[in-house]
Amino acid sequence: MPYDTIVCVKQVPDTANITGEAMKADGTVNRAALPAIFNPEDLNALEAALQVRDGFGGTVTAITMGPLGACEVLRECLYRGADRVILISDRRAAASDTLATSYILSQAIRTVGKYDLVFCGRQAIDGDTAQVGPQLAEKLGIAQVTYFEKLVELSGRMMRARRNVGNGWELLEVKLPALVTVLDTANQPRPAAAKRVMKYKRARAALEVAAEVAKALPDAPAAQKEAEQARRVARLQSAGLLIEQWDLDRIKADLRWCGMSGSPTKVHRVQSLVLTKEGFTSVPPTEEGIRGMIRELIVDHTIG
Amino acid sequence: MSCELGVASEDSQLPTRNSQLLSKMIDPNPKGEVWIFAEQEDEHLAETSLELCGKARELADRLGVKVGAILAGWNVRELSYRLIAHGVDRVYHVHDTRLEHYRTLMYARVVCQLIEKHKPQIVLYGATPLGRDLAPRVASEMRAGLTADCTDLAIGDYTDPRTKQTYSNLLLQIRPAFGGNIIATIINYDRWPQMATVREGVMRLGEGDPRRSGQIIEEKIQFNDFDQSVRLLERHREKRKVNLKGARIIVAGGGGVGSKENFALIHELAGALGAAVGASRAAVDSGFIGKEHQVGQTGTTVRPALYVACGISGAVQHRAGMEESAKIIAINWDKDAPIFGVAHYGIVGDLNKVIPMMIKAIKEKA
């Protein structure tokens, strides 16, 4: 039987490849200089969903939450075979922590309606929390299979899957719908398909169209810009190239649970680590010298 | 809350429930206990849970409250005494055959019901695969804050920059973020309990005092059908192997350690730091330690937060396997040893004297 799957993906700064160019003079990271990439394990989640569709039929819908730049990862999903992509974009969603994010995603998924499986990457490399998957499962009121490594059986309303728990593995049987968080060892994500790239590279969300129009007609009156926008959106829609864009009203989200007010955790302070790769400290082999070194390592949280 | 009901799932046979309507939040409760979730598997406590006991004790003493531990499973009551020895005052023990092996929904029900009943102000979990599966599920149900993978915890005050309101004695949850390039301090002042998962091996493992006394409180939990809907069909555990790749800190010894007996020093320093033990090819070839510990081109390539190279000269093959470490300490007699070329801290001296000094400084927290 066919299965309808939803994949949650995220665009993240490439924290794994911080090069000299992304460093500020004081040794801290210049985030703006980091390239934005498809969160690596979300590609494994997409692949897992595509494999279910290839094997059993059904659909793959990719959802992302973020500013208009996040459309890039949605296009990447289209290139690899996603049937439908949705951008959740709303200023009121800014500053959401994992709990508020999972609530917003749960409302988006409820708005999509029917689904059998939700796939998420195990964690995103900008926060490394691995929390949104389990929290989203709870918000949807469905079971979770974290650290998914292998689909063993899918039949009717039942899935058997193997999860890797670090010091071994477990085979779980869950009823559908269920949520799965996928490890990078689960599969090898497929590359973009050339034909689909040709077709979908012109796919745009309304937000992007507005930005493009503003750039193309900087001095035009507002009414003209709006008309041009509407014309372009209609053209994209008829070509099947309009990326759906939903705000918090569209997904009937309760604003108390979104953004800042929906986030119990607040950032109290942030301290940039100064990378001292070039620095070398000669430590005298004395109690005082060694205490000083240990103290430094405790202060910078290298040791607990 | 009509919003949740407005777009409910269409399939009536789904094992779902509307969590938004059932969940309860806990108001800030400064008299509440400091709790840890005691992780056990096959009747063995996870070491990280004992590390948490010590930290919870410290936080609770600062707040003037008791330390509680949730211990759930089948025939695990005996483990309560170890928890008590490590600083727990009250063990909330749940004995149920259905809890023999960890299953997310069952264990989440245990933790949520106990939190609702006893209203702790802080709940800590090890940032293990189990803890990081369980804690977010609980946090979502309780609508409470959760900070992942903390490397330090403290008690402190916070003044909201907008309202100027000051909240005192909050849990400061300190963690690296952004690929380890920043350290963030996270707080949660209004939706309690304050919860965090804590990185393994970061908090110091105390020795435990078998004479400490504490209470064991038997608890009964009500499970619903949904909680029991996931079946564990098969379970496979490997004996814990040397995990150099996953280690945050590695203490490695080389030929300069001198003998197999003397390699005990390396193990001791690793123990004090909660580190894995590595070795150079020279040490492995001399029979000081097994090949599975070897770091370098022919061994394992590692990039821990801290690499301590003891008596390792630093041949290019070894350096290739460790020079990406965030911080490197090199200890060597020979001031011209190439290892100093990649080190951040260099100590020219006798490792037999330097290592005991390091252990002492670590134990005293400098």
Average pLDDT confidence of chain A is 92
CATH fold-level name of the largest domain in chain A: Rossmann fold
How many strands appear in the DSSP assignment of chain B? 18
| CATH class value of the largest domain in chain B | Alpha Beta
Q: Could you name the ranges of chain B where pLDDT drops below 50 across 5 or more consecutive residues?
A: 1-22
Description:
The complex is a heterodimer of chains A (304) and B (366). Chain A has two domains: 3-203 and 241-257, 3-Layer(aba) Sandwich (Rossmann fold), CATH 3.40.50; 273-304. Helix content of chain A is 33%, strand content 26%. Chain A contains eight helices and 14 strands. In chain A, helix 2 links the parallel strand 4 and strand 5. In chain A, helix 2 packs across helix 5, helix 3 (98-112) crosses helix 4 (132-140) and helix 6 (206-216) crosses helix 7. Helices cover 26% and strands 27% of the residues of chain B. Chain B has ten helices and 18 strands. Chain B has helices at 2-6, 19-22, 47-63, 79-85, 104-118, 129-142, 264-273, 281-285, 316-320, 351-363; strands at residues 34-38, 40-41, 44-45, 67-73, 90-95, 122-126, 146-150, 152-159, 166-177, 182-187, 194-198, 215-219, 231-237, 249-253, 276-279, 306-310, 327-332, 345-348. In chain B, helix 7 runs parallel beside helix 10. Chain B is globular. Chains A and B meet through helix 3, helix 4, strand 7, strand 9 and strand 13 of A and helix 1, helix 5, helix 6, strand 7 and strand 9 of B. Strand 13 of chain A pairs antiparallel with strand 10 (182-187) of chain B, so a sheet runs across the interface.
